[in-house]
Amino acid sequence: MDPDQVTEKLIDSVRRFLDLVRSLDPHTYRRRVTGQWSTHEITAHLAGWNRLMIEACETIRKGMLPGYFGEIATNMAQVNARLVEEYAGLSQNELCQRTEATLDELLRYASRLPAGDLTRDFGVRVRNEVVVTLLGSLDVLAQDYDHHREQILKMLEHGA
Predict the structure, then answer these.
(1) Do β-strands 130-131 and 125-126 pair in parallel, antiparallel, or remain unpaired?
(2) Torsion angle (degrees, nearest 10) of CA 132, 135, 141, 142
(3) The dihedral of CA 18, 69, 77, 152: what is its sign?
(4) Cβ distance 111 to 2 under 8 Å?
(5) How many domains does the chain have?
(6) How far apart are CA 37 and CA 58, in angstroms?
(7) Contact 52, 103 (CB under 8 A)
(8) pLDDT at 34
(9) Secretion signal: which residues (predicted)?
């Protein structure tokens, strides 16, 4: 993986996600997309993950697995619930702005890392086999934005 490509992918994924979110009327924005979450709640969890990635990267750089990996079996339900709650009171516009701000924080953090840290193997593994890198973590975040964008588009297609 090339760091510039992953960074550009993340920026593009966030932009496309937020363009879609901003296009929604308030009723649709608050409508359930999944059995559990509305677009507001999805956006809140993503804004929080932008910031959480900074903490995760620091943990990985210390050679440790970020704590949220302990919640893989529950799809990180507790972490996500906390993030959704943290941003619950923000309006649609405020939450989009917060998502952009937390992305900017993450990108500034990544740009200040020592050369090579994004791709360096710090010895962190999931299930003793999958290498966890900073760059891989950013790529997974971009994939999460794309996944949730697709969920919202499906909800719009089905009018549910």
Answers:
(1) antiparallel
(2) -140
(3) positive
(4) no
(5) 1
(6) 29
(7) no
(8) 79
(9) none
Q: What is the pTM of this model?
A: 0.92
Tokens representing residue 5 in the block: 């490509």
Structural tokens at position 143:
């994939």
Report the pLDDT value the prediction gives residue 78, as an integer from 0 to 100.
Answer: 84
What CATH number should be reported for the domain holding residue 52? Answer: 1.20.120.450
pLDDT at residue 30, as a whole number: 94
- 118-123: list long-range contacts, CB under 8 Å, 24+ apart: 118/3, 118/6, 119/1, 119/3, 122/60, 122/61, 122/62, 122/63, 123/63
Q: What is the mean pLDDT of the chain?
A: 91
Listed in order, strand segments (DSSP E) in the chain are 125-126, 130-131
pLDDT tens-digit map of 20-67: 999 999 999 999 997 789 999 999 999 999 999 999 999 999 999 998
Structure tokens at 17: 């996600």
